[in-house]
Amino acid sequence: MHYKSLIIIVFFLFTFAFLLKGQNSRSTLESKRKELNKQIENTSKLLSQTSKSKQHTLQELSTLQKQMESRGDLIKVIRQELDSIEALLETKQEDVLRLTADLNKMKSAYKKVLVQLYRHKTNNNIVYFLFSSENFNKAFEKQMYLSQLEKRRSQQASVIRKTQISAKTEIGILESQRKEKALLLGEELDQSGSLNQELTEKDKMMRSLKSKESQLRKELAAKEDSKKQLNNKIEGIIRDQIAASKSDSRQYNNSRSKSGVKKSNDPRPSKSGKYIPSEPDRGDESSFAGRKGRLSPPVSGAVVVSKFGKQQHPLFEQVFTHNNGIDMRTPANANVRAVHKGTVVSVFAVPGNGNAVMIKHGAYYTTYSNLSNVYVKRGDELATGASLGTVGKDITTGNYLLHFELWNGKNKENPESWLK
Questions:
Q1: Is residue 25 pLDDT above 70, yes or no?
Q2: Residue 260 backbone class (left: φ over 0; alpha: ψ -120 to 50; beta: rest)
Q3: Is 212-417 CATH 2.70.70.10?
Q4: Tens digit of pLDDT for each residue in 299-323?
Q5: Considering the entire predicted model, what is its pTM?
Q6: pLDDT tens digit string along 248-279?
Q7: Cα 87 from chain centroid?
Q8: Which whole-number Å values give the CA distances from 30 to 15, 77, 81, 273, 332, in the listed order?
Q9: Which CATH topology does 3-205 take?
Q10: Measured at the alpha carbon of residue 299, what is the angle toward residues 288 and 67, in degrees to the nearest 5?
Q11: 40-50 confidence digits (pLDDT tens)
Q12: Which residues touch 100 (CB under 8 Å, ≥6 apart)?
């Protein structure tokens, strides 16, 4: 293979790899942009539900803050998309310049070959051409060389021209995308006025809420007490499950041993007491552990207004709250679904947290509380996505709020890290 052709092939392979990487990056950014748009749509709907109410709440403040964060993230993503397209466009423009220069060189060399051939054909007849050479073989070799050179130059020039056309076509596509992204960015930047209005509304909310500090502190204390009751209830159920599991396993194996049957590690021992068996968690794709980060949220269109763990109060600097799960603000009367298949181990009520459903998934447990209606009962075996009930109103704000917890045995885990 000719050295020049090899360089061109290597060059195109490198360029293709670069463009493929850029395309993948842009696809990721585009997916992220769509997700942010979806989040903004969800929060906008929730905010519009209470826009006519003059009563400001902490949940309203958290929802508005989430809206503003999503808008800011969206603008950043669009800018990244624009930068990515411009980088690819610049690369392609440099490629075309390089190809054009190569094409000009090839044309110049090709022209010299044509001139040389023309001179031999017009100024010299074949007899003169033959006698001017040392012998017939050299004359024939010279003619073949010129013919092959012309053919090779023609092929190379054709390849470069086709590549140049292809590159210009891609540039047209990239320029179109850049205009599209620039327009989208302009639209998002125009929303800076909306962000300013939301910031003004946020300040207004905070002043209003701070004026009700005494009331808020009482509500906070009541919520903390309700959380403790819920936590004690969950811990008690898990403790009973573990203890009953050990007891039933011993009784099961003892009965098999006395009957002369070899002991077995049957993962589903006979039921007794408060223990409800469930399939073992093997950690594969179909198991609960294997779905970490890919579980569907229990409610569609919900927004997390209170995160997991220790959080500083949004108004009072010296006050911290502790959440064993997450609080999700939802649309009115939203349907709550099981995030994974499992068995209902308890349905109970806690003052301040409404009705609760607790599901066992092998070694894991999920709890859905503040339900107004419950459609399941203890012992029910549920499929992923099974309907559990509807979200109830928060007693202090009137907003629809779901409290969701996830435990690995006796250990609490951040539900957000498990949801997609």
A1: yes
A2: left
A3: yes
A4: 998 989 889 998 777 776 666 778 9
A5: 0.62
A6: 555 545 554 555 544 444 444 444 445 666 55
A7: 24
A8: 22, 8, 8, 53, 30
A9: Helix Hairpins (1.10.287)
A10: 115
A11: 887 877 777 66
A12: 164
Q: How would residue 283 be classed by pLDDT, with cut points 50, 70 and 90?
A: low
Q: Which two tokens stand for residue 361?
A: 């998934």
Structure tokens at 22: 């850029």
State the span(s) of the chain assigned CATH 1.10.287. Answer: 3-205
CATH 2.70.70.10 residue window(s) in the chain: 212-417
CA distance 323 to 331: 22
End-to-end alpha carbon distance in the chain: 52
